[in-house]
Amino acid sequence: MRTEQEMFDLILGTARADDRIRAVILNGSRADPEAPRDPFQDFDIVYIVEEVESFRSDPLWIRRFGELMILQKPGEMGDPPSGDDGSETFLMQFTDGNRIDLRIFPLAMLPGLERESLSILLLDKDGIIEPFPPPGNRDHLPQPPTARQYADCCNEFWWVCPYAAKGLWRQEMVYARTMLDRFVREQLMKMLAWHVGAETDFSRGPGKFGKNLHEVLEPEIWQMLEKTYSDARCDSTWDALFMMCDLFRIAALRVAGRCGFDYPQGDDERVSAHLRHVRSLPPDAKEIYQTP
């Protein structure tokens, strides 16, 4: 596996030798002085170029970076559809384990280039790019929720839980897990991010896709979160659903206390009672609730 220095030498050497490339920016974790170093870190690179088309139309030019395991060009993909800011992206996974996410960005569109807080200007041939401030996690920290955002998160969480329960009662495990792992968990993770932020004056965050939650959550909260990841058995999935409810309630109440919001206790109590009722409902039930 090529070393970090060898990769930077290759990235910058390519830029220096190519007159089309006028500047090089490093984004992501390798720009973060506090990020732990490991061999799986990507090289998130932006080349500022005079024109993009010559890079886009030449399928062979990226071979200079190494032997590819797999290449993805989001600009040529229809699902999901890509945006159109005039740039071209080459996501390159190499056979030696290294990976470069390379964005070719047109110089003419430079004022519209989003400046990430985890960025370092590696090369500027013409002195045309305003210096970057010292890199930091400013853009990657959770922001305090508004009262509306908090209320919407709570409403969506409790609204979707009965869908998971319905799928479990029907023994439709794929449907139930989709409701649980996609929709219910999305709101849970959002609330946990706000919880971490609120407990630290929004100076720390969960990391991308919650990768740092094991470091920033209280041990007892982390242990509860671990228990929300179950196998595909029905009983285990029911247990995971109720654990998610308990965890959401704890986090949401703490966020409400810190931010001065009202927690929808009534929604919680009514939906939680419904979930318990559905779990105990016989598999041959003709009604969810019997008519008196």
CATH architecture of the largest domain: Up-down Bundle
- The order of strands across the largest sheet is 3-4-5-2-1-6
Terminal Cα span:
71 Å
* Content-based structural category: alpha+beta
Please tally the β strands and state the result.
6
Strand content: 5-15%
What does it look like?
It is built from eight helices and six strands; from the N terminus they run αββαββββαααααα. The chain has 292 residues and is of the alpha+beta class. The chain folds into two domains: 4-139, Beta Polymerase, domain 2; 141-280, Nucleotidyltransferases  domain 2 (Four Helix Bundle (Hemerythrin (Met), subunit A), Up-down Bundle). A hairpin with a 4-residue loop joins strand 4 (88-94) and strand 5 (99-106). The mean pLDDT is 93.
Keyword list:
alpha+beta, Four Helix Bundle (Hemerythrin (Met), subunit A), 2 domains, 8 helices, 14% strand
Q: What does this entry show, briefly?
A:
With 292 residues, the chain is α+β, with helices and mostly antiparallel strands.
Topology (SSEs and partners):
Layout: H1 4-17, E1 21-27, E2 43-49, H2 53-56, E3 68-72, E4 88-94, E5 99-106, E6 119-124, H3 147-169, H4 173-199, H5 213-216, H6 219-226, H7 234-259, H8 265-280
Parallel strand pairs: 2-5
Antiparallel strand pairs: 1-2, 1-6, 3-4, 4-5
Helix pairs in contact: 3-4, 3-7, 3-8, 4-7, 7-8
